[in-house]
Specification:
This protein is α/β, with parallel strands linked by helices and 311 residues long. It has one domain: TIM Barrel. The protein is 41% helix and 14% strand. It contains 11 helices and 10 strands. The strands form 2 sheets. Strands 3-4-5-6-7-8-9-10 form an 8-stranded parallel barrel, surrounded by 6 helices. A two-stranded antiparallel sheet has the order 1-2. Helix 3 links the parallel strand 5 and strand 6.
């Protein structure tokens, strides 16, 4: 795989949007994974923009993420960045994928962000039994198409873990992008066959979230990862431990390896980082631009064959 710089620009679907390969995800800065001060959350967004990242992703589901992102964007020229938000998971109308709920959600997001438009609207985390409503008449997709026609959004996407649901949405022919989670990492690369093949046939861009495997590849001891609400699967922890030890033996940053592994994959339009402070953003940036010897990448190929998780 070729070397990639975090500020390389990659196009979203058939749109004229070209986003930076490393971009900013907003889940962490809203406090959904743990308490984050407003000062830290706002500073994280400001640091991402300062470093040159031009795409910010958020959702009303991510607690205070949209409001904090809006605070960070005050005074920032609107044409200097792209912003995406999501529908279907606002806590006041949770898992409502009707057209009415989507219009309400986007309107609410615009007020919270302090903006007149967003660049991408994504159908967020539908379950299989939501899909007929989301993709059918008077559903989420229909509303997003109408909002795109009005110029309130410029592109339509879906953000969900289930590959079957992504493929169903791609098959409508109306999507510009698909955001996947935790499926292109050093531990697993199932998105390549599960989503990318179908997406490319429809000119749909694929974006990777959770390149650090929900923190297992962040540089912390994998055994320390988890909260009272979430515990990583044992097979992921075991594979991450092997990588963690392997990197320590070679004095290689596992954070850098994980981020650069994702950035090198040209079938992904971007990799989103979920940092919640300026320090974390800068740490990810430095890890992404610090060169890693090609011998390490060659050796890594063999290790990944041994530890790769299939699903």
């Amino acid at each position: 795989m070729e070397i990639a710089h975090p500020l390389d620009k990659r196009r979203i679907g058939r749109t004229d949007m070209a986003v930076t390969a490393l971009s900013m995800g907003g889940a962490g800065l809203g406090g959904i994974f743990g308490e984050v001060s407003e000062t830290a959350g706002v500073a994280a967004v400001e640091k991402a923009l300062e470093l040159g990242m031009n795409w910010l992703d958020t959702s009303p589901y991510y607690l205070d993420s949209e409001r904090r992102m809006g605070l960070a964007l005050r005074g920032v020229p609107r044409q200097s960045y792209y912003l995406s938000t999501k529908v279907g998971t606002h806590r006041d109308r949770y898992q409502d994928y009707s057209a009415d709920a989507v219009r309400w959600s986007i309107d609410n997001s615009l007020r919270t962000l302090g903006l007149d438009d967003v660049d991408i609207g994504l159908i967020h985390d539908p379950l299989p039994y939501h899909l007929d409503q989301a993709l059918g008449p008077d559903g989420a997709l229909e509303a997003l198409i109408d909002l795109k026609r009005q110029g309130i959004i410029k592109a339509i996407g879906i953000g969900v873990q289930n590959h079957y649901l992504i493929r169903r949405a791609i098959d409508t022919g109306m999507l510009d992008m698909a955001l996947t989670v935790n499926d292109y990492t050093l531990l697993r690369q199932s998105v390549l066959e599960g989503v990318c093949d179908d997406a490319e046939s429809r000119a749909v861009s694929v974006v990777g979230g959770a390149a650090l495997a929900m923190g297992l590849l962040s540089g912390r001891d994998p055994l320390s990862i988890g909260t009272s609400r979430w515990t990583p699967p044992k097979d992921e922890v075991a594979a991450a431990l092997r990588l963690y030890d392997w990197c320590k033996q070679r004095d290689v940053s596992i954070l850098g390896l994980a981020l650069q592994f994702s950035l090198r994959q040209r079938r992904l339009a971007a990799t989103l980082i979920g940092a919640s402070s300026a320090e974390e953003v800068e740490g990810c940036w430095k890890a992404a631009v610090t060169p890693i010897d090609e011998e390490i990448w060659i050796e890594l190929t063999n290790l990944l064959e041994e530890i790769r998780l299939k699903s």
